[in-house]
Amino acid sequence: MYPLTLLPVVADDLNTMDSRVGLRYQTSFMKNALIRALNNIYEQAERISDGENQDFKPFMAYCQIVGDMLRLQYDGDNLFFVGCGTGKVSLDEILGGAWTRNAYWKRIPDTLKIWDARLRDYLENPATYRATDLRALLEEMEGPLTKGLFGLIEVVTPEVISQNFGDEEMQIMIGEHILWLSSNSDLTVLLPFCTSHHDPSTSKFWPVITEEGLAALPGLAEQHASQWALAPFDPVKRVKN
Fold it and tell me: Which one, 30, 42, 58, 117, has least CB within 10 Å?
């Protein structure tokens, strides 16, 4: 049921935390950004009720960005948790096949294909768009996303992770994972998406942005300004829209 519940996080600087403890929160911050995006689509749909609304096209573009970010997170999780660790068995195996044995996880690729196809249909023929249909689709997606993408992070306990990985080893894995996410996404989208869907009151340390990234952020945000205008937070000022 919408709004979807956010995952627990901490306000601490994750870089100063044992990486085996921080892993869960590192992942939860990104998943919370996605949860906020889905809740936002559900809420915005009430206002943008048909294809004649002036915000229809930016809204559809925003929905497509959210779909892309969901796919990026799924592919990243698949690589990080299901793929093997540094010369060891995968995190999925260590955690009892939490991903590969989860029926909801297996449904996510098809769920995202349906989302993409529906948005394309709406854009090709705006007269077919109805907010009630979009909301109904979001409700159908809730199970796979909450139980297959977001909720699985609950099984990532530091006690189990620490039995198989050292702090430094996990730190390297997390760094490689973040690099993979950056390398396999459009940075004009990824960084502004993170800043526009993170509540700074929950942590001032996430997302971690270099000085170079901060300097580039206004220009990056400008490239999809009409989409970020619909987001929960201004991507540059970091205040509520």
Answer: 117
